[in-house]
Amino acid sequence: MADKADKIEGSDAPLTSDQGVHARFQLGYAQSATNTFELDVDINIPGQGITAVFGESGSGKTSLLRCIAGLETNAFGSLQVNGELWQNTSMVVPTYKRNLGYVFQEASLFEHLTASGNLRYAIKRCNQIAKPELLNQVVSVMGIEGILSKHPLQLSGGERQRVAIARALLSQPKLLLMDEPLASLDTARKLEILPYLESLRSSFSIPILYVSHAVDEIVRLADHAVIMRHGKVVAQGAITELFSRADLPLGVGNEVGAILECKVIERDKHWHLMRVEFDGGELWLPNVENNQNTLQRVRVLASDVSLTLTPHTDSSILNVLSGQIAEIINDQDPAMSLVRLKVGASYLVARLTQRSLHKLALTLGDYIWIQIKSAAIVR
Ligand SMILES: Nc1ncnc2c1ncn2[C@@H]1O[C@H](COP(=O)(O)OP(=O)(O)OP(=O)(O)O)[C@@H](O)[C@H]1O
Predict the structure, then answer these.
(1) Where are the domains of the chain?
(2) Which residues are in the ABC transporter domain (predicted)?
(3) Which end of the chain has fewer CB atoms surrounding its CB within 10 Å, N or C?
């Protein structure tokens, strides 16, 4: 054991700060006589909010969650969760003493108990005394007031999953692990459950690691992401930063684009538009009536962005910004290029043909006009 543990460089070195989840793990699975899957990760994620774990099938996402949960007894490394040390090379807190909730793809509820019985069981099993108002808070955040008396078999897939998430929250976890919680649901059930996950993010200030293959879920829910490939972390950081990186697989093909955190500053009732500002400029978007004048996440697809050398005033396009070319990358399609643009403190991505890139003679550092054909609030 000492041998393997020694391989993790600085594994017991002080972890950077008290807040956040700091995890370093190495794990090997022998898959055949000649083939081993190696997980080798070092992640630092915020102490609250949703961090998406994204990567192709077999990249090691579930293995990472299992290491964090203490379920991989052969994993070596260290883990600290908001100041609590759960593992290093000389000590391992066992799974049942790690204060975490784990939600799987399929909700595994006790079939002989009602939804309410399942929740009360979680409270009883919890090591900490629950505040009386916690049950009401969890039930209200997950919107399950009306189904508490039903048995799991009487619930839809989405309802079962909401009860499973509520049950995980009632164990008062310091960390919530969610492994593709919506993957077994159809689109209608997914859309039904997403608003509850959004309110979960704002109501409980714990770190949530959320494995998903679905870019639309990640765009909507996550603040931060860890991107994995072949057992390694290829990138980690704020979602707004990672989505605009054209070298990462977060958006592929027509899904490539940027995410901007925007604030609504004006609503134009006559033209059904709203003006939003972001750290770099302003945009006009189709108005979305809601009572949130606070932060809104806006997605701008690279295919909706075009570039011009001079500002066009005779075009139908409402949104024209100026920016600087930060990066030019070949697209998967050999006819296309992706251009990453710095606009103030934010980034946008444009998808252009190689031919247009050549015609405009664009190079790194050039200042350019950016036309945005369409942008939408993420809902
Ligand atoms: N218990 C095990 N024994 C041997 N190999 C395993 C074991 N568990 C996982 N693996 C292998 O480790 C690799 C990573 O698996 P893991 O389930 O972590 O990937 P993943 O990114 O979660 O994949 P998916 O998106 O398909 O769920 C895969 O090649 C898998 O076959």
Answers:
(1) 20-250, 258-378
(2) 23-255
(3) N
Decide: 63 in ligand 1 pocket, CB within 6 A: yes
- Which residue has the CA at smallest separation from atom 31 of ligand 1? 58
Establish whether residue 58 lines the binding site of ligand 1, counting it when its CB lies within 6 angstroms of any ligand atom.
yes
Helix then strand then coil, in percent of the chain rounded to 5, is 25, 35, 40
Q: For residue 39, how far is its CA from the centre of ligand 1 (angstroms)? A: 10
Whole-complex ipTM: 0.96
Q: Angle of helix 157-170 relative to helix 132-141, nearest 10 degrees?
A: 150
Give 183 Cα–ligand 1 centroid separation in angstroms.
Answer: 17
Tell me, in angstroms, the distance from the centre of ligand 1 to residue 331's CA: 29
Q: What is the CA radius of gyration of the chain?
A: 23
Residue nearest to atom 16 of ligand 1 (CA): 60
**What is the torsion angle, in degrees rounded to the nearest 10, for the CA atoms of residue 299, residue 301, residue 306 and residue 310?**
20
> Which CATH code of 2.40.30.20, 2.60.40.10, 3.40.50.1820, 2.40.50.100 fits the domain covering 258-378?
2.40.50.100
Nearest ligand 1 atom to the CA of 65 is 18
Residues constituting the chain: 379
CA of 211 from ligand 1 middle (Å) equals: 13
**pLDDT tens digit at each of 379 positions of the chain:** 334 444 444 445 544 557 899 999 999 988 777 888 999 999 999 999 999 999 989 999 999 999 999 999 889 999 999 999 999 988 999 999 999 999 998 888 999 999 999 999 988 877 677 677 889 989 998 999 999 999 999 999 889 999 999 999 998 899 999 999 998 888 888 888 888 888 888 888 899 999 998 888 888 899 999 999 999 999 999 988 888 776 775 665 567 888 898 998 988 989 999 899 999 999 999 888 766 666 788 889 998 999 999 987 777 788 999 999 999 988 878 999 999 999 999 999 999 999 999 999 999 999 999 999 877 777 6
| 57 Cβ closer than 6 Å to some ligand 1 atom | yes
Q: Is 59 in the pocket of ligand 1 (CB under 6 A)?
A: yes
Q: Rounded distance, CA 96 to CA 254, Å?
A: 44
Q: Give the residue, by CA position, lying nearest to ligand 1 atom 29.
A: 58
Q: What distance in angstroms lies between residue 138's CA and the mean position of ligand 1's atoms?
A: 32
CB atoms within 10 A of CB 135: 19
Q: How far is the CA of 60 from the centre of ligand 1 (A)?
A: 6
